[in-house]
Amino acid sequence: MSSIYDYFNTETFFTEEERMARDAVRDFVGAKILPNIEAHFENRTFPHELTPELGALGVFGSNLPEKYGCAAMSNTAYGLIMQELERGDSGLRSFVSVQGALVMYPIFAYGNEDQRQRWLPGLAQGSLVGAFGLTEPDFGSNPAGMKTHAVQNGDSWTLNGAKMWITNGSVADIALVWAKDDEGKIHGFIVDTKSPGFSAPEMKRKMSLRASVTSELVLQDVVVPETDRLPEAKGLKAALGCLTQARYGIAWGAVGAALACFETAVEYSKTRIQFDRPIGGFQLVQAKLAEMHTEIAKAQLLALRLGQLKDRGEVTFGQVSMAKRNNVAMALDVARSAREILGANGISTEYPIMRHMTNLESVKTYEGTHDIHTLILGQEITGIPAFT
Amino acid sequence: MKILVCVKQVPATDSRIKPTGDGVGVDLSSVDWIINPYDEFAIEEALQLKAKHDGEVVVVSIGGDKVEDAMRSALALGVDTAEVIKDAGSAASDSLGIAKGLAAIAKRHNPDLILCGKQAVDDDQMAVPAMLAELLDLPQATVVVGMEVAEDGKSAKVDREIEGGHEKIEVTFPAVIATQKGLNEPRYANLKGIMAAKKKKIEVLSAADLGLGEFGSKVEVLAVNPPAEKTGARMIEGDAAAQVTELIKVLHDEEKII
Lengths: 388, 258
Ligand SMILES: Cc1cc2nc3c(=O)[nH]c(=O)nc-3n(C[C@H](O)[C@H](O)[C@H](O)COP(=O)(O)OP(=O)(O)OC[C@H]3O[C@@H](n4cnc5c(N)ncnc54)[C@H](O)[C@@H]3O)c2cc1C
Fold this sequence. Notes:
By secondary structure, chain A is α+β, with helices and mostly antiparallel strands. Chain A contains 10 helices and 9 strands.
């Protein structure tokens, strides 16, 4: 049966275990995350004590194989899990996205069997935390220009450089660092964050994703054994492959944030009385609600279909770009309309809206900015790249 | 140790329910269904006992169309197997009918221990655990908030909540124990458990499979009434001191509560 929160009844396309996974994560977020999330957001802290519990729940790398300690769920289930995490907070979803899509996935896809056995079970359990270092102070949308440098000396490499805006950087046990060799080839390294010469100062002045740790990574003559280089990560393509995984999750996650804002606005509009009637009875408010409702329904259908294609192994990076671009912009618009409907209450952390709205500003920028995805689609359409 | 856990599927506690058109039933067509919250303590206790004493946990239910969903949820938590009775009238049976059905299943399994929630939160009868113990001629302990099973797994010291205090009693197994909030902290389903549950079997039985007659009810419901509508709230205005004075006046003079 459809509800206003699932107007086209996408529910019927999910398998029993996909629905159960979604509900399990929703229950967990409701019980463990939502009660304290405003405080974490205000105090700029992440609830690290919950990392092992998130691991036990199974959300880290939930679509990777059982033999590495993962749940081996479908990509659709993975998407629904991201939706429920981000219904809680984009910072929480970011934490899980980075761990699963940007650290575990590359080790799984580009690592050798030793590396998989060594790292994946701990990352799945949450006894280890990972970070993904691609962005640099001078290279964001254009990572190909990166300056972080790797020099091979026999059985090891020496890394020098700096990364910026790295989620989980200061709390990570390992950082997946992308660096260029003398020939300009890009490699991925699993860097032990306890290595001499590695430091990760936290970036503290964020007004967005405050319940998520963001850091610089500084590498000064950090020595990384050849055995910790991902052998199959050949060039920037590998890094972008990870991003496609993470963007896929974001396309679903954004729906969760939008639903949280929409639900809040709907409830509020039915109970807030002005001029002797609920504000939800005014046409201008209804117009906002109808717009939000429609855009959420479209985004849900897009995510659903994206998941189906990914489960069949048919999804393209252009489709993922379109869904990330559309759904995040949609969520931000929904958050803004919801904010207006709540009036002054909309700006307070008493309600989740402003928190989601400021979070979504980061989500719109990371994993390829909205405009970079526009250019990706532009190239898909015309065949002409417009990046430079 | 073989443990049988009796579970009822009930409407989610936040469901908005209304009487059916004829006024003698509840319209359940659009509610979400959950495992009865008190039964969650029973499942958790069974899983903890299994971890300590080894053995098997079987969950059973008598219910309607969607009862397998509740079983799947229990299997995802780590329960080994599930059996349900689905039959004409099984969902609408009275407490005694349910207890007889559960007793028939229990006899097939010969469990060391039967755990139930102390009551179902939909019709609040609190009758099935006691009836089940009676039908099977087993010792029972109801409203249990603490439980210590002997090393040999053949008896338990249990802590019962009673009016104004606690009662400690010892029961020898097999026994029926009905669980109350506070006994333990029920676990969450995790994703690996959900995937594992997919491979576990839910056996669906009819009353005839168990040699039982048709399910029915000796109780006839005459009417179901919703709670009285809440009347409008009243806002008290003014500064803190004025509000307190006004509030005391309202509670004392108008509502006569204090
Ligand atoms: C909270 C947070 C967490 C992050 N976590 C990580 C992480 O874990 N790991 C990681 O590697 N990175 C991370 N990032 C970095 C993120 O991926 C980058 O911020 C993003 O790629 C954009 O880079 P930039 O900020 O340098 O912006 P720039 O690339 O400088 O872009 C600035 C503006 O210029 C536009 N622009 C750039 N190039 C073009 C063009 N060719 N045509 C048209 N417009 C263009 C952009 O769309 C944007 O509007 C994170 C960022 C944030 C905010």
